[in-house]
Amino acid sequence: MADFDLVVIGSGPAGEKGALHAALHGKRVAVVEREPVPGGTAANTGTLPSKTLRETALYLSGFRQRGLFGVETTLRREATVSDFLYRERRVKGMERQRILEDLKRHGVELVYGKGALEDARTVVVRREGEPERRLTADVILVATGSSPFRPPMYPFGDPRVHDSDELLELTELPNTLVVVGAGVIGCEYACMFAALGIQVTLVEPKPELLSFLDDEISALLQQRMEKLGVRMRLGRTVEAVEVPPEPRAPIRLTLKDGERLETDQVLVASGRSANTTGLGLEAVGVKLGTRGQVEVGPEYQTAVPGIYAVGDVIGFPALASTSMEQARIAVMHAFQLGAPNRIAPVLPYGIYTIPEVSMAGETEESLRARDIPYVVGRAAFSTNPRGQIIGEAHGLLKLLFRREDLRLLGVHVLGEQASELVHVGLMALMTGANARIFVETCFNYPTLSEAYKTATYDAMDKVRTPPAR
Ligand SMILES: Cc1cc2nc3c(=O)[nH]c(=O)nc-3n(C[C@H](O)[C@H](O)[C@H](O)COP(=O)(O)OP(=O)(O)OC[C@H]3O[C@@H](n4cnc5c(N)ncnc54)[C@H](O)[C@@H]3O)c2cc1C
Ligand SMILES: NC(=O)c1ccc[n+]([C@@H]2O[C@H](COP(=O)([O-])OP(=O)(O)OC[C@H]3O[C@@H](n4cnc5c(N)ncnc54)[C@H](O)[C@@H]3O)[C@@H](O)[C@H]2O)c1
């Protein structure tokens, strides 16, 4: 008999949730983690740290209060690096503790060391100064995540040049910062630093921000970020970087069109690479894609029976939210725990820029590409009583309905609480609801959620036919 029913490599959200799900069903589970702490990118270097820093930046800058007293009013005070990082360290510490306790409570063994496959049923764990350990299992779940991609032109050894992991080791807040790459990470950090009063320039080869967003929302986000002070260099590429050895001399970046930017520090956020090197996957027959990501089937099975892979290591959409769901589905499939299960057909995206943006379902562009007639309903937070109370003057809820029967097809929110508000629409999308659900629901008042009713009436006004039951 194998030592375990399941061995998981990696203790990020995918690994942790996969392990707990199997343990809940009575399986004997071990999790292998190469770092001295559990939690992966989500707990230690990515999701939770960045969201905590955003909250800190909003608090220290008095940003939320600005709308209450007029746009020009600011309660900003000078923030130190320890102010900035204090809560990030606390939240991180609490999350690590929670994971350790959850694993222990469910009888999951946490084995520290670097895991690799010796064969399709054996994980060998190596840790400096300790003898190798071999763990055999009926099922192996690869949940090793991803790491920042580091374009070779940037000298990451210099303390002023960061990727998103190293940024959390910041020893000094810069006066000026260039962020390279306007993906989700670049946009989120650009907003945070700009809110703190740091002059931020965002350089991105693509002509627009976050091209997967609805175009109207992307353009509004760009406007709001510019208003926050982020200087946009979209459709532009960095050609050369000069980092002088004197710590106080400015770093110089030359763009392809000849513009020169001088800055105290640089954050490079130009994508991530799957953590597959040294895992021995290909040697046992697991197939890797062109960018190193593990190739999987719909229930996250690899080419080798009994080996599954979930989370960032399989690539898109590479979110903590989706990684946890993938792990649950993989474990259910591997141990045949109930009916076949697939990931939800509609996934939400929450982007913690300032303002926050969130979406689920179709965009106007995707509907036009598929020739689906639609109608748009909008509700501005400035006309919503709760929006007025909290001083949220620029928020927007945008709903996309199928014209023929007012079935909800897409939800887009920009503004305070966007990533929470989207869930009302997400549930409607999941149940295939039409406009009636919002007409007939009694919402708390005054709330931002009530904007769902306003946006629905706006759409109904445009078609002037009530939705069918
Ligand atoms: C700055 C930033 C902000 C983000 N914000 C959000 C957000 O707001 N919302 C959201 O949903 N997602 C967000 N993400 C994405 C999210 O963090 C990831 O999608 C998620 O962490 C992936 O989970 P995972 O378990 O697949 O991998 P990870 O969290 O990366 O965990 C993988 C684990 O495997 C371990 N490991 C790797 N190789 C080995 C090995 N050989 N042996 C043993 N252990 C190994 C690693 O040490 C790590 O602990 C953010 C990411 C970043 C970088
Ligand atoms: N709120 C969230 O859900 C959240 C937050 C942060 C990160 N994440 C996840 O983390 C992952 C990584 O995020 P990311 O922002 O690093 O990657 P990304 O792929 O989202 O964006 C990278 C950006 O960098 C640009 N780029 C690529 N190469 C470049 C180069 N050499 N020079 C300049 N720009 C370059 C790309 O055009 C792109 O816009 C994503 O999968 C994202 O979903 C999610």
Features of the shown structure:
single chain, 469 residues, alpha/beta, FAD/NAD(P)-binding domain, Enolase-like, domain 1, 3 domains, five-stranded parallel β-sheet, binds flavin-adenine dinucleotide, binds nicotinamide-adenine-dinucleotide, EC 1.6.1.1, Pyr_nucl-diS_OxRdtase_dimer, NADP
Question: Please, could you describe this protein's structure?
Answer:
There is one protein chain. The mean pLDDT is 95. Strand 18 (348-351) and strand 19 form a beta hairpin. The protein has three domains: 4-148 and 273-334, 3-Layer(bba) Sandwich (FAD/NAD(P)-binding domain), CATH 3.50.50; 161-270, FAD/NAD(P)-binding domain; 355-464, 2-Layer Sandwich (Enolase-like, domain 1), CATH 3.30.390.30. 32% of the residues lie in helices and 23% in strands. It has 14 helices and 22 strands. Helix 1 runs parallel beside helix 9 and helix 3 (47-61) packs parallel to helix 6. The chain is globular. It has helices at 13-24, 40-44, 47-61, 63-69, 81-105, 184-195, 215-228, 281-284, 320-334, 364-369, 385-390, 418-430, 436-440, 451-463, and strands at residues 4-9, 29-33, 109-112, 114-119, 122-126, 133-142, 146-148, 161-162, 176-180, 199-204, 231-234, 238-242, 251-255, 260-263, 265-268, 272-274, 307-309, 348-351, 357-361, 374-380, 396-402, 408-414. It is of the alpha/beta class and 469 residues long. The strands form five sheets. Strands 1, 2, 3, 4, 5, 6 and 17 form a seven-stranded mixed β-sheet that branches. Strands 8-15-9-10-11 form a five-stranded parallel β-sheet, covered by helices on one side. The longest helix has 25 residues, at 81-105. Bound molecules: flavin-adenine dinucleotide (FAD) and nicotinamide-adenine-dinucleotide. Flavin-adenine dinucleotide binds at residues 9-15, 32-35, 40-42, 46-47, 50-51, 114-115, 143-146, 164, 185, 275, 279, 311-313, 318-321, 323, 352. Flavin-adenine dinucleotide is lined by residues 9-15, 32-35, 40-42, 46-47, 50-51, 114-115, 143-146, 164, 185, 275, 279, 311-313, 318-321, 323, 352.
